[in-house]
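seq:
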Amino acid sequence: MISRCPQLLRTLPAILHARASHWNTPFEAKPRGRDIYIVPKKTVPTHTVIWMHGLGDSAMGFLDFFDREDSLVPKSTKVVLLTAPEVPVSINNGMIMNSWFDQEIDNEGAFVAKKEDVVKSYKRVVKVIEEEASEYKQDYKKIVVGGFSQGCAMALYTGFTFEKTLGGVCGLSGFLFNFVELDEKKKEMPIFLYHGKMDDMVLYEPMYSALIPVSYTHLRAHETRHDLVCRLLLEKKKKKKK
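struct:
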């Protein structure tokens, strides 16, 4: 994990610079503290995606997901990769790691998050949303929040809780907190959820039994970001052929 390596954090600008010189992409990755901002090289951003990683990961973990020639986002999109704070995580015996909230498992095998932790992380995401909205004349529909696993849960919470209607929510292999209040005003907000049907880490059925899935994979384990990149790009190409 990048946050567990202070020396790596100090050299992050040099790492991104070296990477940029070898990768021909339409974006430029810029470190900002423990976060990474991916900005278009040749145009002014028209939209922003704020992305949150899963348990134990970091902003660096999703750099290759977005900063690539065949990126899933339009070339006029800015991507903000956030890194979660370092906190003790109960399901990992109190080990300190990057996590948006402390996490436990209840008697039925479902993930349980501490609401106070979620709210604390949510406030940080809101700060970034407000910063980005100021660049679009307070047009919040030009901002999309998304994430993987824990980050997906945070994205859904943010989308439903934030007072303004955002441009959308994108969630991969995640879950919905049982304390989320669904706002009638948000029912028109676009939401894309992608989950492995045979994911044995975050189970498909309990989380999505009430939804019609857009698509699913047949992975037997919790999907990694690399698997998702390959499969999402494959689906993107299939749609183009159609």
